[in-house]
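To close the chapter, one final illustration. This time we ask the reader to focus less on the individual chains and more on the assembly as a whole: which components sit near each other, and how the overall shape emerges from the parts.
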Amino acid sequence: MSKKPSTLPDLQSPPPAAVSNAAMDPVNASLTAQEKIALFRQMMRIRRFEERSLRAYQAKKIGGFLHLYIGQEAVAVGSCSLMGKNDHVITAYRDHGHALAVGMEMNPLMAELYGKVTGCSKGKGGSMHFFDPSRNYWGGHGIVGGQVPLGTGLAYGLKYKGLKGACMTFMGDGAVNQGSVHEAYNLAALWDLPVVFVVENNGYSMGTSQARSSAGLLGKRAEGYDMAWGICDGHNLYEVRAFMAKYLELAREKCKPSVVEVRTYRYRGHSVADPDNTYRAKAEIEEYRRTKDPIQVFQHVLLDEKVLDQALIEKIDTEARAEADLSAEFAEASPFPTPDDIQKDVYWEADNPSERKSGGRLFFN
Amino acid sequence: MPVLQYREAIRQALAEELTRDPNVVVMGEEVAQFNGAYKVTEGLLDRFGPKRIVDTPISEAGFIGMGIGASLLGVRPVIELMFWSFYSVAFDQILNNAANVRYMSGGQIHCPIVIRGPANGGTNVGATHSHTPENVLANHPGIKVVVPATPYDAKGLLKSAIRDNDPVMFLENTVLYGDKGEVPADDYLVPLGKADVKREGTGLTIVTYGRPVILSLEAAAILQEKNNISVEVVDLRTIRPLDIDTVLASVRKTHRVLVVEEQKPFCGVGAQLAYMIQAEAFDDLDGPVARLSTVDAPSIYSPPVEAEQLPNTQRIIKAALAALA
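The assembled structure is written out below.
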């Protein structure tokens, strides 16, 4: 195969973003100015957190992989801002944005990246494995498509317990060719489970463009399972909210699953280790940055609405940067777990010795 | 005491736990309307209804992953694999998700799921349907592995497994499903991680689990009668957690040990046992740890030859005599 950078991928852009229509959708029209600012702030926090984590990675403070969400912020923030008490979220390894979007704090996230015991998973999960069940956030999963049956199971659990909620099961465009995804689609449709499968289509599964990896429209595969589906402009936060609200409602009220393909874009490589110069042109990235950046797009909207002004934008940006810097300081100052911690959090029974019922050895050193 | 088949004992455990805990759900291929491919779940649909007894499509990665996800919200799925051999298409769900989700969340999550079904050779179904993955499963910290040999143990261990907050892999045996034994009608538990001395003896310890327990007991009776050799048979019942102390106590009594497993030998359960026995009871051994495994090849179809590939009574007797030579 030629190593020549591809031209613009065939993203089959969705119809021109009907910004005004999405803005008038009840789910957006009902937002107060403060709520709109909070959504903007949330996207900014994700952007600055990830930029700070990238610097830490380059300074070798972070090991392993670092999959940045930069460019996709409107998807997680828009979707997670719609969560009610019984709504749940699960995603793949590009999970920092969702974690912040469900309300996790920067400190435990940055500390997790640094491998510190104050991390959200005590330094045991790393970048790909952020969890916070108290916020209905079930990870953070490393294997492409592996989390999709789990999300379907969370929806099954909701239905089994008679709770009115939905599980947003996020995946990337690379996941749609995995068998586990199709098995999950079938079960969700067969049993009417309240799940919204959200395909965050950033155009590339690692370095392979959609055109080179996937036949047909990704969202349309839902039709084979008689599921509702749609394609949404993921650069526009109002659009994401209006779209997702509709499908969440379908899940919560009618217990029907759906597939939402969200067109988005990542500015960084698949991971930080990805040189990002073999499969797409720099001009393509620049074009997205210039015309579709989700923070810029929403900023313009809120400036037009007179919800934001330059001073407030700068204040929000400064605060987000400061918060990210502080989280890096927190992570830096935190201790690492110790070798004694390696064998904790493996078995529930080993961690709860007073309630242990089994005998014998659980570990073999 | 009532006498039940092994499959009936498992069914009774399921029924009792379904009755006790409304969060217990039985799911798998053909478990409901078809009454179970091996009739283990026969009658449960009529008794508990389709919400609790759920037929799945042939989609192991899908429904096992779904069960794991549901367990995070407090559902306690007991998932039947028609054959444990089919675990390979759900490997990622079982051994990445169920095994690791607690660890990767820093202990915030637990995964109370049971996956059960038969894992054995001896029924002439060829290599794809004859896997015995207890070693593979037990190689994954976070997972528990149970292999019952008798109806009594099957019921008591399954009830413990269902109440356990960790993911438990429960490996049954199609050859044993029709075996009968005394099974109390009451609500008893057999704890995981407790081996059972199924026969007391003084001259040789056979450490084993699953169907070879039954075969070893037959071999022990013959060795006593024909060779005047007193054999102690230790049934592990659980592979992980492992009750090595009961094994070591027996070795310290008999000073000779033979491990019998229905497993391919390389990196099998017997290899781990042999290592631990020599490491912890070296001075008590009067000879090397002997081992009888399945003959090391994919499972052969040819019926009379498959019987020779697996541990059988004659092979156990031969191995026992060699261990004592």
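The radius of gyration of chain A is 21 Å. Residues 22-338 of chain A form a domain with the Rossmann fold fold (CATH 3.40.50.970). With these observations in hand, you are ready for the problems at the end of the chapter.
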